[in-house]
Write a structure and sequence with these properties.
It is a single chain. By secondary structure, the chain is an all-alpha fold. The chain has helices at residues 16-46, 52-79, 88-94, 107-134, 138-159. The chain contains five helices and no strands. Helix 1 (16-46) runs antiparallel to helix 2 (52-79) and helix 1 runs antiparallel to helix 4. The termini are far apart. Bound molecules: fe (ii) ion. Fe (ii) ion (FE2) is lined by residues 44, 60. Residues 44, 60 line the site of fe (ii) ion.
Length: 164
Amino acid sequence: MARTKSLNDTKNDLNAKTRGAMVALLDARLLDAIDLYLQAKQAHWNVKGTQFIALHELFDQVAEVADGATDLIAERSVQLGGQPTGAAAAVAKGSALKPYPLLAADGRAHVEALANALAQLGKRVRAAIDEADKGGDKDTADLFTGISRDIDKHLWFVEAHNVK
Ligand SMILES: [Fe+2]
């Protein structure tokens, strides 16, 4: 996503080029993570079927993980001089996740949809680890690494319900 805002000043010793690249990277993944939060809540509210309570609670755990990730990502952006936006219009325009199937009802459909969302974010966060590392910001790479582990763990939790 093109970056048009200028960086805010900071005494952080990372150079401006690195900070600018990291802010753009963080701001883009922020939109994806907010979308995952919203998709997990959609699943949490609407799931029905014999596995209701297990999935209802698990989907809320996914929402919590996504919510925690949004805070870490947005605050790292601010630390580097960014001014992240998490407004709904920006998420709708900028999220790389596929739209959630709003008519999903039974557990299997929600498991499939949320597993897809987790996998998409997992892939993009994994790419962000490498991008941050190559860009010279080990802390942002580490932040994305922690988030990646959490996303993978919850992808496992969700996929474990998908017994063939
Ligand atoms: Fe709830």
